[in-house]
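During the first year of the project, the team set up a workflow for recording each protein of interest as an amino acid sequence followed immediately by a discrete structure-token representation. This format lets reviewers and collaborators read both layers of information side by side without switching files. As required by the reporting guidelines, we include two representative entries from the current panel. The first entry is reproduced here exactly as it appears in our internal archive.
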Amino acid sequence: MSEVQVCYEDDALLALNKPAGMPAQPDPTGDPSLLDWAQAYAVQPLHLVNRLDRPVSGLMLLAKTSRAMIQVQQQFRDSRVHKEYLAVVTGLPPEPQGELTHFLVQNPRTHRVQAYAEERPRAMRAVLCYRLIGQGDRYAFLLVQPLTGRHHQIRAQLAAIGCPIKGDVRYGARRANTDRSIHLHAWRLALEHPTTGRTLCLEASWPQTDALWKAVGQALQTGPC
């Protein structure tokens, strides 16, 4: 597992690049969590502002005060935080770029989310935009901007259009990655700083763990972003 990287820090916030495979907070496995690491680093209690699934890497935001936590979490709830993810998927999406709208139903027994094209009882509406930024022989590289913040939204919506994320066997990938990661990375966040009110733009470098992630980086450097 890669090391945690500090992306930003001030008196109110701490932004970290979570490696894939690390839980965001303590869980029944007892494995070291990002919250454990962050509180040891900051030598103070911290509050998780957002969360990432264990197999996902990228930006996680922690607040140093309860006031900062409440203010930023409200921005997430109001969909005022701009989020960008990088994904490596099997197959090509139907168009080079587009907007996807699905209605998500979570199965509490399997912890899997099903994405439907039509509205259903107890379903949560989920919207994301995507853009094809490159492709290889077997995989496509996508820039994904979720406009809502639903559980497993990106994983379920991409699977619903026939483009499961590499390694994500829960959502249709043929095989797991050897390190149990999936090729999904929380790359950028833009939000209003809870103290200054200015726009804060954060970025977490993508993994350097394999050739596919390096190809994603090359695609970003050579194409429009």
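The second entry, processed by the same pipeline in the following quarter, appears below.
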Amino acid sequence: MMADEVQNAEGAPEATENTGGPRRGRGGRDGGRGGRDGGRGRRDDRRPRDEDGGEELIEKLVHINRVSKTVKGGKRFGFAALVVVGDGKGRAGFGHGKAREVPEAISKATAAAKKAMIRVPLRDGRTLHHDGRGHFGAGNVTVRSAPAGTGIIAGGPMRAVFESLGVADVVTKSVGTSNPYNMIRATFEALGEQTSPKSVAQRRGKKVSDLIKRGGASDRAAEAEAAAVTE
């Protein structure tokens, strides 16, 4: 006689409660609340996305600062992250985040950078329209437009800004502090003062070609350059 069968009163075998099937307890892997996922699904898609249109963004981690606080029983560490975010098409922003862990600090800084993105007009989609200067604290930066093929002549935090912004040709100079926070803020102050010929012409009630003519260009060259201006 098999171990899973028991004789009843009439002599016929009857099956016990152990049928060999999967158990449905709360602690099993297939259970409702006892599984690892807890009924909430897997957390595989944790990549940050743009809240506006879901487009891909360029994220640059500029600086991470670690601070420690001495408490009873040891030291407590904290991290501060500085992140620059851009779409590579003329929009960029920076953010700062603090947390006890590095990934959480980076995610906070990225979220803050997405909310503070600004639009910077670009000439031919590769360089700035005109020169500019920015000042914040002890940081002084100068940004200049450059011809095609120049590349990004910038270092440190400023390079991350122009790479995320989508600028291909620019010449920069930083004088004063090398603090990345002040350099980033001074750079964005210089970028915030950028204006395009189209916006100036619209504000003054003139044509773009009229503004270009005042620079000494001929009528035909001014018309051709004005037609090439996109923003």
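For the second entry, the following points were noted during internal review. The two ends are 89 Å apart (CA to CA). The domain at 58-192 is CATH 3.30.160.20 (Double Stranded RNA Binding Domain). Both points are flagged for discussion at the upcoming steering committee meeting.
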